[in-house]
TrEMBL record:
Domain Activator of Hsp90 ATPase homologue 1/2-like C-terminal as annotated: residue spans: 26-141
Top-level lineage group: Bacteria
Name of the featured protein: Activator of Hsp90 ATPase homologue 1/2-like C-terminal domain-containing protein
Family: Belongs to the AHA1 family.
InterPro entries from the UniProt entry: ASHA1/2-like_C (IPR013538), START-like_dom_sf (IPR023393)
Length: 169
C-alpha cells in the first residue's frame, strides 16, 4: 500500500503543530467513543487506565513494542463529544506533547481533526507526522470494518519523514 502524507502545519495556542483530518460515515457520538473509550482505542493505538474524572489517566501505546513506557495524559479541556485537549508526558522525560481532538458532524458524517505540537524541536515533525498518519489510518481501518494490522508503519516512516521536516524548515 502507498500512503500519502495528510498533515498540515498549524499554530495552536502559539505552538507549532501538525493537524490531520479524517472523515467517518458515522455519528459524532460513535467517533467520540472511538477516540476516547479504552477498549475502542485498543483496536488501533493503545489503552488507558485510571479515572478520567481525576483529570488524568495513564496511557500505553500497544503497537510500538513492549519497551514503550506509559504516558500520563492530562485532560485540559473536555467538551464531549466535540472537543478534547490533552497534554502528554512520559514520567522522567522533559518532552511534552499538546494534542487537540475536534469533532464536527455534518449530514451523517463526522470529521475528526487531530493536532499535535512538535515541541521545541521542529525536527520532531519527522516522527510526529508519519506516526499520526499511520495511527489515524489504523483508526479508519478499525472503524470501517478493516484490519488495523494491515496498515504497515513502513509505508509511512521513513517514507514521509522529509515531507514533514520540510513543513518546519
Amino acid at each position: 500500500m502507498t500512503s500519502t502524507p495528510t498533515g498540515r502545519r498549524v499554530t495552536i495556542d502559539g505552538l507549532d503543530s501538525i493537524a490531520f483530518d479524517r472523515t467517518f460515515r458515522a455519528g459524532i457520538e460513535d467517533v467520540w467513543a472511538a477516540v476516547t473509550e479504552s477498549d475502542r482505542l485498543a483496536r488501533w493505538i493503545g489503552e488507558w487506565t485510571g479515572d478520567p474524572s481525576t483529570g488524568s489517566v495513564d496511557f500505553r501505546m500497544l503497537y510500538e513494542g513492549d519497551e514503550h513506557q506509559a504516558e500520563v495524559l492530562t485532560v485540559q479541556e473536555c467538551q464531549a463529544p466535540r472537543r478534547l485537549v490533552l497534554i502528554s508526558r512520559v514520567p522522567g522525560e522533559e518532552l511534552v506533547w499538546h494534542m487537540t481532538l475536534t469533532l464536527v458532524e455534518h449530514e451523517g458524517a463526522t470529521t475528526l481533526t487531530f493536532t499535535q505540537s512538535v515541541g521545541d524541536d521542529p525536527a520532531m515533525a519527522g516522527g510526529v507526522g508519519p506516526g499520526w498518519d499511520y495511527y489515524l489510518d489504523r483508526l479508519v481501518a478499525a472503524e470501517t470494518g478493516g484490519d488495523p494490522a494491515s496498515v504497515d508503519f513502513g509505508d509511512y516512516h521513513p517514507v514521509h519523514q522529509q515531507h514533514y521536516l520540510d513543513m518546519f524548515s
